[in-house]
Fold each of these.
Amino acid sequence: MTTLQLQLIVTLNISFYPHPLMSVTLADATAAMETIQKSSRVLVICHRNPDGDAIGALIGIALLIEQQFPTIPVFMHCVDPVPETLQFMPGASRVLNALTTKAGDALVFVDIAEPKLTELHESHPQLFDKSIPSIMIDHHPGNPLFGTVNILVPEAASSCEIVVAIADLLKWNITNDIATCLLTGVYTDTGGLLHSNTSAAVYRTVARLLRAGARQQLIVTAVFRTAKMSTLKLWGRVLEKISVSSEGGAVSAVTEGDFRATGADHSELAGAIDYVNAVPGMRFSMILSEKGGKVKGSLRTLRDDVDVAAMAGKFSGGGHKKAAGFALSGKLKPEMRWKVVEEEGKKNASAEN
Ligand SMILES: [Mn+2]
C-alpha cells in the first residue's frame, strides 16, 4: 500500500466518524423521539440550584422539541429560579417553579445525577417510578437510570453535549438560540474549556455550536466576566479563610453569617472553588458552606490519584472523580488552634535584660 492510499484511508476514517459521542446511539435517540411523539405534553426538568449545564440543557432540549413538534406544549421546570447570570439565555423567563402532571405527559430529565436532586422525589414520587414515559439525559457516572429511556454518557463533559448528539442523530435543526443555550452548558461544565474533562469531543461540539450561530461572547461576558459586588465580597471571605487541612487539602468555609454580611446568596459561591483549587501542592480543595440547616461541601482536585467523588461518598454525596459534593444536616463550628512555641535561647536573653 502506498503512502497516498494510507493517507486517504485515514482521512476517510476521520470524516465518516459518526459522532464524537459514540455512546448516544440512533436507537436511543429514536426511542427518545418516539416517547415525545406519543405524548400530549412534555415537561422538561432539571436539578435544584441549577448551573449553566442544567439550564442550558433544559432550555436547549425544550426548544428543540417545540420546534420539532409544534403541536405539543412543552414546559420547563426547576424548583429553584434561573440564576441571574444565566438569565441571558433565550427562553430563561419560561422556566417554571410549579409542576403538575397529567395523563399523556412525557418527562425529559436533564443533568440530574439522581432523583432527589430535583427536590421533587418526595412531593412528586410518580415522576421517578417509571409510571410516566420519561427520557433521562445525563453525564454523571452512577446515575441510577430512572427514566424509561436512559441516555447516560459518563464520558461527556456536559449534558448539553449529549443534547447536541441527540439533535444531530435525529437531524433536528440547532438554531442560534438553541446553540447559545447548549454552548453555555459546555462552557460552564468545563470551566470555560479549562477543566480536564475538555476532550477533543468537547472542542468538536463547541465548533459545531459556533457554526450553528451560538453567541459565544454573550456567554463569556455573562458567565465568566460578570460578578456582582456581593459575589466578589463573598469570594473575598472564601479566599481570606483558606487553610491547609491535615489531609493536605486547601479548605475554606462560609457561614450563614458570611452570606448575610455580604448580601450574597448561595448560588454566588459557584466558581470560588476554582481559586481555592489553585493552591499549589494540594491533594484536593474544599469549600464548606452553610445553607438552611445544612452544610454543603464542594470538592475539587487536580490530581489523578485523588478521587473526590469517593471522599464525598463518605458523607453520602457524590459526583465526578475531580469534582464532587455532599450535603449534611448541621452547621459549621469554627475551630481555631493556637500553640505557643518558645524559641531556643530567647529565655536566657530576656533574663539578662
Ligand atoms: Mn452537568
Amino acid sequence: MLFNNKKQTFKSLLEQTLYFPYRHLMLIAVLALTAITLWLDTPEDVSHTQAPKPTVSPQIAISPEKTEPISIDEEASKEVHEPKIELTEVVPQEKKEDKVAAQEKVVIQEKIVIRKGDTLSGLFDHYNLGQATLIYLLSADESLLALETLQPGHILFFRYKEKTQDLEEMELYIHAGHRVVYRRIAADAFNYETIIREGEWRSKTISGKIESNFYSSAQRAGLTEAEAATVTQIFQDQLDFSRVIRKGDTFQIVRNVQFIDDLPTGQTRIDSARVQRRAYEHTAFLFQDGRYYDKQGKSLARALTRTPLGKSYRISSRFNPKRVHPITGRVAPHNGTDFATPTGTKVLSTGDGIVTRVGNHRFAGRYLEIKHGGRFKTRYLHLHRILVRKGASVKRGQAIALSGNTGRSTGPHLHFELHINGRPVNPMKAKIPRTQSISKKDRSIFLARVAQQTSLLDAPNKTTKQKTTKIAINETQQNTNKKTN
Ligand SMILES: [Zn+2]
C-alpha cells in the first residue's frame, strides 16, 4: 500500500527511467534533492503557536492545472507522471532519538509529501500513530471532508510531543492558500482549523481556433481538461459544443491563477469566455455574485434554489458552528441543514453544475458534491444511493441521489450544505442570487466589469495582476475558521 513500488523490479524501473521524457528526469532530480534536503533539515522543533514553514513541493509549484481536489483512489491512475522511485523524504525513526527530550512544549514534526498509492491508513501504520487516532481525525473531518481528497503533492505534517509520542496535531497542506490543522482536544477527539490565504490572482487570456473539436483545441491552447469542461458547462444552455462548433470558430478565455508569495497555488478560475462562430458571438462574464452572465447581463444558469427537495420537510438540525453533536456529545460545527427525509427521497440539485466529488465516508456516509459556476458548491451527505457520476453535468432540479441514513447518523435524513468561496454558509439564510438578470443597482458595476474583461479578451496572452474580488458572505464565520493574508 504505502510502498507498493517495492514489488517493482530493478529492470522495469530502469526501463521506465530510460524512457522518461526529459521533464520527468528533471522532476526526479528535483524530488531527490528535496528528499535530501528534508532528510537533512527535519525533524525540526516547532512550538504549537509557531506557524510552520512548509517547503513547497516541486509538484505543487509546477502543476497549475489542478483546479479541483480529486480522490486519491479514483484518480491515482491518472497521475502517471509520478516517478516510481523510493524516496526518503520520510525522516528515519532514529533521528527522533537525537533530539533532547526536554520541555513539555517540545514538539516533533514529521513531514510527508503524499505520493501516488499512499493512503492515510498506510501512513498511520508506517508512523505508528495508531488506527484509532485516524478514526478520531476522520470523525473531526466529517464536517469538512478535507482528508477525502488527498492527492499526490499534498503534504502532511505530523506533530507530537516527544515524551508521549501521541499525535498532537496534524496539518494538511493542500496548497499555500489552503491548509487545515487538526488539533487534539481530548484523548479521543480532534477539532480542526481551516487556514485560507487569498493571495493575488493574475489573469491571462488564452485564445484559440477550433481544429476538430472544442475540447482538444482548448487544451492545445492551454486550458486544462477541467477548465474546458467548465467552459462547456457555462454555455450548456445556449451552445452545444459537439454539434454547432465548427472548424475555424474561435474562442478567447480569461483565466485567473492564484499566486501566493509569487508561487502559483494551482487554483484557477475562469473569469470570462467568448466563443465566436461565424455570425454569432457567445459571451460569459463572472460577476461578484458568483454567477456567469452574458454581456447584456442575463444569467447563463438558472438561479440556485434554497432547498434540494421537491416538497418541504421538517428541518431536524440547523446550520450551527457550535452544535453539540447528537452522537459524540462534543461541540463540532454543523456545516449544513438536516431535513427529516425518509430513506429513498429524491434529492434534487439546487442549481446547474458539475459533479465534482462522489464518495463514501466512514462518518458522512455516501456523499456528493456539485460545483455551481464560479463560487458556489453544494454537498449532500448520508445518501442511500447516488444517481450521477463524478464529472457529470447536472441541471437545477435534476434528481441526483436518494436520501438515506449512511455513515454516522441518528436516523434517515438529508444533510445539505452550501459553500460560498470554499466556506460553508447557512443554506437557509445565505444570500444567493435569485433573479435571472443583473439588478438595476448592480448594472453599472457589471458593465464596467464587462468592459474591463472585454479588453482582456481582445488582448491575448497578456498577464494582468489583480486583487481578488471578494464576494460578501452575510454569515458569521465559523470560529474554527481563520482568515489570514
Ligand atoms: Zn447534518
